Amino acid sequence: MFNEFIQSPCGIVEVQACEQGITAIRFVESEASASVPSAVTTKACEQLRAYFAGELTTFDLPLAPAGTLFQQRVWNALSDIPYGATCSYRDIAEAIDNPKGVRAVGLANGKNPIAIVIPCHRVIGANGKLTGYAGGLHRKATLLELEGAL
């Protein structure tokens, strides 16, 4: 396993990877371990810095998130939400041909291990309100403001 940390407007971000690609991007309270960088973690950190600087709107990284088939389908649908746009959990449920699976989509969204790059922060409530975000609603708001979606 490889990892690297960056400072962001939302706090410290840890990027984790295996040989196949990025396995996790998450907000952490501190750099709890020494970095063990790889080419892919370094590339991810460079792209994240560019994203936070407002210079990058689309990531180009190999991803290797671990999850169930259903979670993978949800995460793939999340990846289709354009920069600066938002959608509802119902929109994602319909996108994966499971219109009654709104709650399951919400649960899968919350299990997304690759924050920002798989943009679960772009999913909001059907009423337009910000809803749960594993990194905290203040971070979700910051990311959406950065993208011009709020």
Automatic annotation (TrEMBL):
Q: What class of enzyme is it?
A: transferase
Q: Give me the reactions it catalyses.
A: a 6-O-methyl-2'-deoxyguanosine in DNA + L-cysteinyl-[protein] = S-methyl-L-cysteinyl-[protein] + a 2'-deoxyguanosine in DNA; a 4-O-methyl-thymidine in DNA + L-cysteinyl-[protein] = a thymidine in DNA + S-methyl-L-cysteinyl-[protein]
InterPro entries (alphabetical): MethylDNA_cys_MeTrfase_AS, MethylDNA_cys_MeTrfase_DNA-bd, MethylDNA_cys_MeTrfase_DNAb, MethylG_MeTrfase_N, MGMT, MGMT_N_sf, WH-like_DNA-bd_sf
What residue stretches are annotated with the Methylated-DNA-[protein]-cysteine S-methyltransferase DNA binding domain? 70-149
**What are the EC numbers?**
2.1.1.63
Q: Name one GO cellular component term.
A: cytoplasm
GO BP: any one term: DNA alkylation repair
Alphabetically list the UniProt keywords: Cytoplasm, DNA damage, DNA repair, Methyltransferase, Transferase
Boundaries of every Methylguanine DNA methyltransferase ribonuclease-like domain copy: 2-65
Q: Which GO molecular function terms does the record list?
A: methylated-DNA-[protein]-cysteine S-methyltransferase activity
Where is it localised?
Cytoplasm
One Pfam family of this chain: Methyltransf_1N
Catalytic residues as annotated in Swiss-Prot or TrEMBL: 120 (nucleophile)
The domain of life for this entry's organism is: Bacteria
* Chain's role: Involved in the cellular defense against the biological effects of O6-methylguanine (O6-MeG) and O4-methylthymine (O4-MeT) in DNA. Repairs the methylated nucleobase in DNA by stoichiometrically transferring the methyl group to a cysteine residue in the enzyme. This is a suicide reaction: the enzyme is irreversibly inactivated.
Q: Which NCBIfam families match?
A: ogt
Other remarks in the entry: This enzyme catalyzes only one turnover and therefore is not strictly catalytic. According to one definition, an enzyme is a biocatalyst that acts repeatedly and over many reaction cycles.
Q: Which family does it belong to?
A: Belongs to the MGMT family.
Quote the HAMAP family the UniProt record gives: OGT
User: What is the name listed in the Swiss-Prot or TrEMBL entry for this protein?
Assistant: Methylated-DNA--protein-cysteine methyltransferase
